[in-house]
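Students often ask why inverse folding is considered easier than folding. One informal answer: many sequences map to the same fold, so there is more than one right answer. In these notes we will look at a single instance of the problem. The structure comes first.
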């Protein structure tokens, strides 16, 4: 009898925890306003975040000057390379047929293809499904 009571409460607690996790991750994903924020969140959730290393051999008071010198030299080098090439940037004109008319697509076809994509995404990660989910 005690075992049955334990199993009953164990299932309830497990379900409550899973619901809380689902709601937490859903709110985190929905709160991302840009794709950059969403990418950062998915990397963090996947355990792929890494700290940004700073050089150890340069003291903290000289670090800003070091960055400034590096970027100044880099920009100077790029400008020199661009100036030495001279001329205008190369551009190839479009050689294909321009589209002047578009055909309408049946929303059922779009929804069907979306469902195929959604089913393929489901197997990747549980939080990535939100990336392709829309409402119709």
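Output (designed amino acids):
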């Amino acid at each position: 009898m005690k075992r049955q009571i334990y199993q009953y409460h164990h299932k309830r607690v497990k379900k409550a925890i899973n619901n809380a996790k689902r709601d937490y991750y859903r709110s985190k994903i929905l709160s991302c306003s840009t794709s950059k924020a969403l990418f950062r969140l998915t990397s963090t959730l996947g355990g792929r975040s890494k700290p940004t290393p700073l050089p150890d051999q340069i003291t903290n008071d000289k670090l800003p000057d070091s960055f400034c010198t590096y970027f100044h030299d880099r920009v100077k080098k790029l400008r020199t390379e661009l100036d030495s090439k001279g001329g205008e940037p190369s551009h190839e004109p479009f050689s294909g047929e321009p589209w002047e008319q578009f055909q309408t697509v049946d929303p059922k076809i779009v929804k069907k293809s979306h469902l195929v994509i959604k089913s393929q995404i489901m197997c990747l990660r549980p939080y990535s499904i939100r990336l392709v989910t829309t409402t119709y």
